[in-house]
Fold this protein.
Amino acid sequence: MLHNLRQLLRYRGLIQSLVARELKARYRGSVLGFFWSFINPLLLLLIYSFVFAVVLPGTHPAEIEPYALFMFCGILPWTWFSSSLSESANVLIGHGNLIKKVLFPAEILPIVTVLANMVHFFLGLPILIGFLIYYWRPLTFVELLWFPVVVLVQALLTTGLALILSALTVHFRDIRDLLSNLLTFWFFATPIIYPMNQAVNQAPDFARNLLNLNPFTHLAISYQEILFYPGPFGHWRWLLALGAASVVLFLIGYFLFDRLRDSFAEEV
Amino acid sequence: MAAGNAIEVRDVSKVYRRYGHRRQFATLKSAILSGSFVSDLKADETFEALKGVSFDVAKGRTYGIIGRNGSGKSTMLKCVAGITRPTRGTVTVNGRISALIELGAGFHPEISGRENVFINGIMLGLSKKEITKRFDEIVRFAELEDFIDAPVKTYSSGMYMRLGFAVAIHVDPDVLLVDEVLAVGDEGFTHKCLDKFGEFRRRGKTILLVTHSLGLVERFCDEALWLEAGRVRGTGDPRRVVGAYVTAVEEGEEALLAREDARAREDVAAHVAAGGPPVATPHDPVAVGGATPAAEPTPTDMFLASSGRWGSREVEIAGVTLIGDEGPGHVFHASEKLIVRLAVTAAAPVTDFVFGFGLFNADGVCVYGTNTDLEDLDPAEIRGTGQVDFVIEPLGLIEGTYKIDVAVHRRDGYPYDYHRLLYTFRVKSRTKDVGIYRPPHRWVFSDGVKLTTRI
């Protein structure tokens, strides 16, 4: 396993070009091309703003304004997370040709999926920055230093899950269908369209515990604290704990993937 | 690993697991219930594709693997390539491998040929710099100068394969694994590939070739391995191994044709027993000549006619045996003598009878038809049991599958016993000439024209 992990470093060139290929191929043939990376999150935001600011204006606490910006802080990383997972469930089966016919380190595929979606996430950031400037939100330099840490933790967590999902889906195709439902549930079980303190105050205990157990809760809160709420970044203990857990999860995921590796060529 | 060996395969077995649909469903359920995924990934039904295969390929040799479909050739190649791991045994390869297993397997249809060359090259183990250096050569070899910037999805399958081949071959491997890929291009490209292989050989690279093209193995390989149902049936000199393989294939075909023939005759017997019409058809291909020489059938009728048996059985053809140089059989060489032996019986003496023979190729074209009447043989009497031999010497047919008609009928065409297309045999020939007829011939050259016999 350690040997294979070292091998992974040797393949960075391949990972790089595959991520580039993924991005190029994604919008090839569409008129707007790369602009979709901006437009997609913007449209999503529009939908949620319509529902929660126009149709149901009373559902969020008054101090969470502008609400659109608040939601955007969570939706953007969530899109990275959820598309990575749902794509990586398909990635080994979809690239069956490579696994069956070419000597190819399969773990590159889920990793490329996560990284390509990360690039989309980065491409969405300018919109977020535009919002921040438009609303003239105060940002402190020290808080912004935490931003790459949050991104790194999310990348590790997502990659670990992507490895597990991609390896297991080869054997249990049902995971693909389970996953899409699970992700919908997961989205609503994460303080993205509602603030955490509202949930803490109003929801019953078990729901609060569930929220706290949800790893993405702490990522979402971290993003919100850094980009939305004024004041110092107070969630860093949770974030670091999650970071440590993500490292463990990544290793577990890699171990599982490595164990199942030999079966891929036969099962995809 | 012994010095001088490029590939060492030791006692390699490969077991594939097979799941039924129900089984897979059960796996998911039990996996969720017991919470242990890895231990449940075991199927009870297994299929052993390779059973203890061992062989060595010395550096710089070209090694051919032959065998029928499903004999484990491709699995062997994948084990050597490292794509699948053998269940038991070891495979050791010395040097950089490039596997021409599926050409262009990693191509992405949406992006240009140029970008695909780079990504495919990196996948196969080249660095960006190496690809840049070889890029023009790759494109020239693939003959795609004009299309290299078009997305790969617009390529024809030939272009796709050529590009895949060009990239794989320019990886400059020490060991090249080839799986039946020479069939991809047109004639010209195939020659180019063979030239490239030749160049590899001259440069002392090792080639492992899996193919159905036996001629290629004989001409091209230093050594051959014959796999049969996952086991090594023979190794060594390619000519000898190919010869043994061809013999075995013919024996298999022989058995198959014998079974088919038996089934055709059973069908007919069942049909007659069920009250089918045992009467002559108006277009009776063998009942030509005699009283109605003008009623010669056209090939269209032959084509439409299906197999069957009919007649009054006053004279009966009780059995038909095809006999070649090595006794009765169904597969014969073009150079052999073929005897079509009819066992005939007449319960009461008959004085008006004609024996006929018709030969049809796989397209239903009548290759030849004759009868005793056409050849000026007048019947005297047939009584009791007897034997009629139709001798063709040499067989002299083009390679292919043939069916025959045999019949005995009255001179006016009234059928005693008519066997329509009930007997099948196959002709093998070293010469792959074409047509429906091979006239006896030879080539004669004057002094200025020099040819040598290919070995």
Q: What stands out?
A: The interface with chain A takes residues 16-17, 27-28, 31, 37-38, 41, 78, 81-85, 97, 99, 101-102, 105-106, 108, 110-111, 115, 118-119, 122-124, 127-128, 151 of chain B (CB under 8 Å). The domain at 248-428 of chain B is CATH 2.70.50.60 (Coagulation Factor XIII; Chain A, domain 1).
